Fold this protein.
Amino acid sequence: MTEPPRFAGKVAVVTGGSRGIGRAIALALASEGADVAISYRKEVRAAREVVTGIEHVGRRALAIPSNAADPAETEEFVQKARRQLGRIDILVANAAVGGPDGWESVSTAAWRELVDTNLVGCYSLVHAARPHLAAAGASVIFISSIGGLLAAPDIVAYAATKAGVISLARSLALALAPATRVNAVAPGWVRTDMTAELHESTGPREGIRRTIPRGRWGEPDDVAAAVVFLASDMARFVTGETLIVDGGGSLRWRAGVEE
Amino acid sequence: MFDLSGRDVLVTGSSRGIGRAIALELARAGSDVAIHHRSNPAAAEKARAEVVALGHEARVVAGDVADPAAVASFVRSAGEWKGRLDGVVTSAGIYRGDASESVGPAEFDAVLRTDLEGTFRTIQASLPYLRKSVRPAVVTVSSVLGAHAATGAVAYQAAKAGVEQLTRALALELAPRIRVNSVAPGFVRTDMNRGGHEEPAFHAFVAKSTPLGRWGEPDDVAPVVRYLLSLEADWVTGAVLGVDGGIALR
């Protein structure tokens, strides 16, 4: 069965698109026909590789160094994307920072970096792109986390920002309706650089794997497919939702479960 | 992406409404489909012919999902057709909208047995056939009223809340192999809602209350089911996804 590409003639903007989940999202959107602009903070080489990957499937690509925590840089990123690619149909706010570990010593600076990047960054992206969004059928997707839904005493600040992202998706879904849909994806444990310390050592990797009913860690492509679905016409009546993509990991409360 | 070529899927309640739209969408995505109905053979036959016209195989099975013996029989008929089921979609359901004071035992019982137990019995009876699939997946059909309260239809609301928790519990119990997810449609223009969407004032009220500005159509729900059944949703289980135009947001 062959279908026409879902995003032919459309333009997607993805923050944090050089690595991990953002990279998979950028490539998946391109493989479905979208031209894609990605932002990245430090990984020039990785960003260039993503551009090559997008161009390899015949789409136009753009990589701009831009810190999601800085609204002015985000504004500039969005302007460049629109100028060079002509329009904006799909926005994916993916850029995020993780950590710090432990609840007792989260510095004010760490709080600010997390809130500014993970939460305010979602808002700034939408705010900057709003005047340029396609008049009909535009779609915004925020990458949250199951950390935003469950208790996460080891990463309290990260979890709080990700809970905020879910709230922001709901509020903006209402604010931007009916022209633009806004949804969130809440991934569980996905193998990325952010989780490398855990999935690269056997004990933590297996310990986490055993808490996932599907029996495996997530891959960036699992999340990217959810984003493609939500961005596409298949989800035309879905807005304000949070799609949990976690292998079932958030279903089980741990009380009495053998580790 | 989201290709369902070669899948064999049973869709309950697929002679009409959302179930029918799901059956046709799955066929467009490449599936063969077992069309199920309770008491509308003509509509089921029409749906079957539509699937065949899309180039896929279809068979009609019949029975009341409120009757466990009938469920066992029609699921067997669907399962033995190809010897397995790659997907089961439980779309059969009834709605009663009475105020609580006038809900008698028969009405409460009929709604719970059809909407909640019917969902469970269908999945339970399908297990031997799902276990023969390489990538089995189940999608239940809840409602925006499964997690958001409205006046009247108390049995329906309780049943749909039950369907959502049933979905999560089965996702855990049937893991790691069988995925179970749910869609929760808002107000959709079907025969079940005919009293609502054909009444001008209520039609306007729902359209106005829905952030996306309109009633849902069966074809809005069907592609969401397609995604949840697809290989691309391999790491999605126990999820309940609203397909309601945002009506639950306010």
